[in-house]
Amino acid sequence: MSEPAPAAARPVIPVYRPDLSGNERRYVLDCLESSWISSNGAYIGKFEAAFAHATGAAHAYGVCNGTVALHLALHALGIGPGDEVIVPSFTYIASVNTIVQCGATPVFADSREGDWLLDPSDVMARITPRTRAIMPVHLYGAACDMDAIMAIARQHGLLVVEDCAEAFTTTIHGRHVGTFGDVGTFSFFGNKTITTGEGGMVIANDDALAKRMLQARGQGQSFARRYWHEVMGFNYRMTNIVAAIGLAQIERLPGIVAAKRHVSARYRALLSGLPVTYQRPGNGVDGPEWLVSLLLPEGADRERLMARMAQDAVETRPVFYPAHTMPMYARNEHFPRAEAISARGMSLPSFPTITEAELARVADSFGNALKEQGLA
Known about the structure:
Blueprint lengths: L23 H11 L7 H14 L3 E5 L2 H11 L7 E5 L5 H8 L3 E5 L10 H6 L5 E4 L11 H11 L2 E5 L7 E2 L2 E2 L6 E5 L12 E5 L2 H11 L22 H12 L1 H18 L6 E2 L6 E2 L6 E3 L6 H10 L5 E2 L17 H9 E3 L8 H17 L4
Parallel strand pairs: 2-3, 2-4, 4-5, 5-8
Antiparallel strand pairs: 1-9, 6-7, 6-11, 8-9, 10-12, 12-14, 13-14
Helix pairs in contact: 1-8, 2-8, 3-4, 3-7, 10-12
């Protein structure tokens, strides 16, 4: 009987690996053979139509990544210098950067303890005469309390841009995130629920707003006159190759979502009994976890634990650092819940094709790492 391979010789279990086992290759080759590889081609419209159908939005337009989707939305809504946009401090930095790129000021708000998302009561406390918009961010597959946020927006006449980069297929009482506010934005980076490598999408129900985003996406060019640019715009277009991958991905969406749900359920079973806390989605929220993420027990040394798991060839990630702690946005502010979540949170390998043996390896490594710190 041979000895088990040392950890260093084991294949690394990554945090994420996209599943490209459908028509992705066939559709991309079709683009190459037809020479339709840039921002024209049949796959763009097909992917946009499929995405609009999946979300229930009237309009969906592909862009080159999720960050420019946010910037395009803010730009089309007229957000600019002198405006304030309320955004959670606990978010990926792109949410904040795009506000600044418009010349506006990000106003940070704290998160809720249970779902880790934007706290509507803290939003209320941060509204000023300069507030123009709220940017709820649906993190890790959960969804913000959009009933409360939209009530605040209506009361104060505010715009709402939903950052749904990590929440494709997440719904609230059956309604897809991104359809509550003025604009919803999505990312198709390699670790998202569906991926195109890079890529993003904006969705909207208002016809005039959607038209503004469509025109600004393509350098502000007139819809009726070639090379006549009526408004300032950007080169934010999606390519046909990217859309071809996206269409192939969305064709297999039910299977991808089911696999992600299975991964979440298996981790909870394998890690039962360990002193960890999971994100708790709000009432009526349904969707797969983007990355299975949890809070370590008080007193755990996260960096040491992650390094120990790396020795077992298991890749992990910390959750996001609060934006108000970043050097360029550092302020004399304190957001206790955002800071607590950020300090203790970590994400486990969560790709849809992870095997049972790999799940068991991750669970064993995690449990042993906790045990070494006297916490399991």
